[in-house]
């Protein structure tokens, strides 16, 4: 009898796991994982998956667990993932930068593919032209901090922090340690939606002073 109960429980648990993500989503995850080795996670228990899925400003969005998480480290890896997704038009996916949007399914996706640009973050500055080249991912801290060290200000997000929080506040995000669960305004979403900075009264929106946005991820 005990054996029968445990067999039934196993069957129910297995059904719950397999019923969530579609077979084409799982196939897309496998294919992306083969094309972008060591940059795809499906286990809820992995550090990268846990940290990324819990790094949304809105706590409600943390409930949307993707079938797999992709953390590309280059434009080539992004292209490889998007190319595969194009083969699976029924597979839902979302792109995440800082995770500051409160809207469901914008940068979060339940049972779909989540591409986070977390590892595509950072900035370089050319003193001569006074142009900062900002990578599309991560949070404004990844940009404001390094530029601040060079005495340069940028029309970036208003919610940021120049010094990391104590270790207990959460897992690592971007290039700043331990600000994870708090979540700071991201580079990608902020630039695409306009971007109101403390400097906007003088210099306009971030989008007004950006002349190229590289890494805009869309299916087509
Ligand atoms: C507490 C708080 C403070 C805020 N302060 C400011 C502020 O000072 N100034 C201001 O202008 N706004 C502010 N906002 C609004 C915020 O800028 C927007 O919500 C913005 O979209 C967040 O960007 P993100 O990268 O963190 O968002 P995410 O949630 O990661 O992304 C937002 C949207 O952009 C898309 N996206 C991100 N990166 C890419 C990419 N590379 N290619 C294609 N799509 C992409 C996502 O798919 C999603 O649809 C604030 C919001 C909150 C909650």
Short synopsis of the structure:
The chain has 220 residues and is of the alpha/beta class. Helix content is 34%, strand content 10%. It has helices at 2-20, 23-35, 47-53, 75-86, 141-149, 187-192, 200-203, 206-209, and strands at 40-41, 68-70, 93-96, 113-116, 123-126, 131-134.
Structure report:
The chain is of the alpha/beta class. It contains 8 helices and 6 strands; from the N terminus they run H-H-E-H-E-H-E-E-E-E-H-H-H-H. It folds into 2 domains: about 1-115, Uridine Diphospho-n-acetylenolpyruvylglucosamine Reductase, domain 2, CATH 3.30.43; about 125-220, no CATH class. The chain has helices spanning about 1-20, 25-35, 45-55, 75-85, 140-150, 185-190, 200-205, 205-210; strands at about 40, 70, 95, 115, 125, 130-135. It is elongated. Residues about 1-20, about 160-180 and about 215-220 have low confidence and may be disordered. It binds flavin-adenine dinucleotide. The site of flavin-adenine dinucleotide has 29 residues, from strand 3 and helix 6.
Would you spell out the secondary-structure blueprint of this structure?
Elements: H1 2-20, H2 23-35, E1 40-41, H3 47-53, E2 68-70, H4 75-86, E3 93-96, E4 113-116, E5 123-126, E6 131-134, H5 141-149, H6 187-192, H7 200-203, H8 206-209
Parallel strand pairs: 2-4, 3-4
Antiparallel strand pairs: 1-2, 5-6
The structure holds flavin-adenine dinucleotide.
Residues 57, 94-101, 106-107, 117, 136, 157-159, 185-186, 188-190, 192-196, 215-217 line the site of flavin-adenine dinucleotide.
């Amino acid at each position: 009898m005990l054996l029968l109960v445990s067999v039934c429980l196993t069957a129910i648990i297995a059904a719950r796991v397999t019923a969530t993500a579609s077979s084409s989503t799982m196939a897309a995850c496998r294919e992306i994982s083969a094309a972008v080795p060591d940059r795809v996670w499906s286990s809820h228990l992995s550090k990268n998956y846990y940290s990324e899925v819990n790094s949304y400003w809105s706590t409600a969005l943390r409930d949307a667990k993707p079938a797999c998480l992709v953390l590309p480290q280059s434009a080539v890896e992004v292209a490889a993932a998007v190319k595969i997704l194009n083969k699976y038009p029924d597979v839902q996916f979302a792109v995440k930068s800082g995770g500051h949007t409160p809207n469901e399914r914008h940068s979060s996706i339940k049972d779909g593919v989540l591409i986070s640009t977390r590892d595509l973050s950072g900035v370089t500055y050319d003193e001569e032209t006074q142009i900062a080249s900002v990578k599309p991912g991560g949070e404004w801290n990844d940009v404001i901090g390094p530029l601040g060290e060079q005495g340069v200000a940028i029309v970036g997000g208003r919610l940021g922090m120049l010094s990391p929080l104590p270790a207990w506040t959460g897992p690592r995000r971007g290039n700043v340690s331990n600000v994870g669960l708090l979540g700071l305004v991201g580079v990608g979403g902020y630039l695409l939606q306009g971007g109101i900075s403390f400097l906007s009264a003088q210099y306009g929106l971030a989008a007004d002073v950006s002349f190229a946005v590289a890494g805009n991820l869309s299916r087509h």
